[in-house]
Design a protein that fits this description.
10 helices, mainly alpha, 280 residues
């Protein structure tokens, strides 16, 4: 069971995860998993199972807002999704290897921390060195549709799906910069596309990850209980965040978010190292 204090913590985590997820086209796991680890104690597989379910609900209202703003490139999304689904299944399979079982979950937690550190540091470098200055402003002329081949589709979908399945995230932290790199599309369009892709990858990934968790933990309902508390406020936050995407300066949003990622990365990585040293 979840006590009242834990419910309040999860409500706040869900709201903040939805807000950042809606603004930046990510599922919200990059906020939820570190926050739950910090405030509720380490249990990487449990948190990934719950967060992957919540990701689905976070991006639905965001995609609705992006659809209303007419910034989703359907042809790009439809080309990336099938490959991303295949690789998210591979990523979940890798996360369930015996290496990451029991005390080995610390390796998975450490990998998550390193990923956050890389993602936050890379984005911060781009922002401070003027490499991300092509953010399209409200009212600007829209870019022409991008014709994307299977090669560039794979270059985006493979890392997005693999990391999403392995670490239980939506994949937007990779999907947005990779679309910028290989397709050269405006950042708001990349965010909208990313959120749309996550609908598919999070649904498939959550189904497989939770099946594995329930099977390995005597039909435990813990992931579903956590998700049930996180989902309502994450939806509320996502609705607000996705609207703010089209109103607030993207650079300001991303600077604050990068700082948060790096802080979470440090905490997760040091925690994982401490756990491994304690069991060695």
């Amino acid at each position: 069971m979840i006590d009242l204090i834990e419910i309040l913590i999860l409500v706040i985590i869900g709201l903040f995860a939805g807000l950042t997820g809606g603004m930046l086209g990510v599922g919200g796991s990059i906020v939820m998993i570190p926050a739950m680890t910090e405030l509720l104690g380490p249990d990487q597989h449990l948190y990934q199972s719950a967060a992957m379910m919540v990701n689905f609900f976070v991006v639905i209202p965001a995609v609705y807002q992006h659809h209303r703003a007419k910034v989703i490139e359907r042809s790009t999304v439809l080309r990336i999704i099938p490959l991303a689904i295949m690789t998210v299944l591979l990523g979940v399979g890798i996360s369930e290897l015996s290496l990451f079982a029991g005390t080995g979950e610390a390796y998975l937690r450490g990998a998550f921390g390193l990923f956050l550190f890389f993602a936050g540091g890379f984005d911060l470098y781009r922002l401070t060195h003027g490499r991300d200055a092509r953010a399209d402003l409200p009212g600007c002329k829209k870019s022409p549709p991008v014709v994307i081949g299977w090669g560039r589709s794979a270059a985006i979908a493979a890392p997005v799906g693999l990391i999403a399945g392995l670490l239980g995230i939506g994949g937007g932290l990779l999907a947005v910069p990779l679309q910028r790199r290989f397709l050269g599309i405006p950042i708001r369009t990349a965010i909208a596309n990313s959120a749309t892709i996550i609908i598919a990858t999070s649904l498939v990934g959550a189904a497989v990850k939770n099946y594995a968790y329930v099977t390995e933990h005597a039909n435990s309902t813990k992931p579903f209980m956590l998700a049930a508390v996180l989902i309502p406020t994450s939806i509320l936050g996502s609705l607000l965040g996705s609207r703010l995407t089209h109103r607030l300066p993207v650079k300001v949003i991303k600077m604050a978010f990068c700082a948060l990622l790096i802080l979470a990365a440090v905490r997760l990585s040091f925690g994982a190292v401490a756990s491994l040293m304690a069991t060695s």
